[in-house]
Write a structure and sequence with these properties.
By secondary structure, the chain is mostly beta strands. It is built from one helix and 18 strands. Among the domains are: 37-130, Immunoglobulin-like (Sandwich), CATH 2.60.40.10; 190-305, Immunoglobulin-like, CATH 2.60.40.10. The strands form four sheets. Strands 1, 2, 3, 4, 5, 6 and 7 form a seven-stranded mixed sheet that branches. Strands 12, 13, 14, 16, 17 and 18 form a six-stranded antiparallel sheet that branches.
């Protein structure tokens, strides 16, 4: 009888022990870690930007354990992770992250992680980026001059009544040739022809604008993500570079200015540099240099920056 009564009590004892164990795990902190909380303060959903703008994303993340990492995500891909200055984590972390806008409608999201490995829910906003305007190239028709070596046809002069008609004196015009309109002969392809600077002789500490002329000889519009690299003479690696621009080029010649966000702040004497233009493959992110139509190499602009 006692044995039978004890076997009947076994299920009740097991349930009670499981409840006690669950309470102990929660008390010891073995239960699932709390998630951080993240809010995007700017931009607001529906904000509009232009292609090439810097989109500034400001967020605030909080967690009682401590925020150790915050990720900026664009259309599902992480574009920028940042950590707080305190490596162990901050209970409140306000952060400003930047993303270069590309044309289209995009979803920006921010996600925070705490020291215990917990991840916040995604904070989301949707923005619209309008495409940059493609400059319209004017069509200039050459003036057709009169054939060389010709003279005006002499016209008869009407004399007074009774006088003998005579031909008016003619003047021989010195042949002249029209001014040549510069043209660029190029095989089919996409080329870069020249780079110029504004100002031509930049001072140290001032931003430099690089004006690049492109030639689209493919017959159809082409899109490139391009930028300018600055090199010291005889150096393989670049000294600096401008921000990248996504541009759709119509057939013909187009001159565009790279973003004026490069300058030299170092001290010392005048320093020589060389500017060259490159593009980034959107697939494998390979960087290649534009070359000139004669395929002798890429265009380059040498300059000096002086104090």
């Amino acid at each position: 009888m006692p044995a039978r009564f004890f076997r009947a009590l076994l299920p009740l004892i097991a349930v009670a022990m499981l409840g006690v164990l669950a309470c102990d795990l929660s008390t010891l902190g073995i239960a699932q870690a709390a998630k951080p909380k993240t809010t995007i303060q700017s931009p607001a959903t529906g904000a509009q930007f232009r292609e090439g703008d810097d989109v500034i994303v400001q967020s605030i993340s909080t967690d009682p354990v401590g925020v150790v990492r915050v990720e900026l995500i664009v259309d599902g891909a992480v574009v920028r992770p940042d950590v707080p200055p305190i490596a162990a984590g901050q209970t409140s972390f306000t952060l400003v992250q930047k993303w270069k806008a590309t044309a289209g409608t995009h979803t920006l999201s921010v996600r925070a992680f705490n020291a215990a490995g917990g991840a916040s829910e995604l904070a989301l906003v949707t923005i619209t980026v309008t495409a940059a305007e493609v400059p319209t190239l004017p069509i200039i028709l050459p003036t057709v001059p009169a054939p060389l070596g010709t003279s005006p046809t002499p016209q008869p002069t009407v004399p007074p009544s009774g006088a003998t008609p005579t031909l008016a004196a003619t003047t021989t015009r010195t042949p002249t040739r029209p001014s040549a309109t510069p043209t660029i002969a190029a095989p089919p392809g996409f080329w870069s022809t020249t780079i110029t600077l504004d100002p031509p002789a930049p001072k140290r500490g001032t931003f430099v604008t690089f004006n690049v002329t492109f030639l689209n000889a493919t017959g159809t519009s082409q899109t490139y993500r391009w930028f300018v690299k600055i090199f010291e003479p005889d150096k393989r690696n670049s000294f600096g570079e401008t921000s990248k621009l996504n541009t759709t080029f119509a057939p013909g010649t187009t001159t565009l200015a790279a973003p004026a966000d490069w300058k030299i702040g170092a001290l010392g004497d005048c320093m020589p540099y060389i500017a060259r233009v490159f593009w980034e493959d959107p697939g494998d992110k390979t960087v290649r240099e534009f070359i000139k139509p004669d395929q002798s190499g890429g265009p380059a602009a040498g300059f000096q920056e002086c104090p």
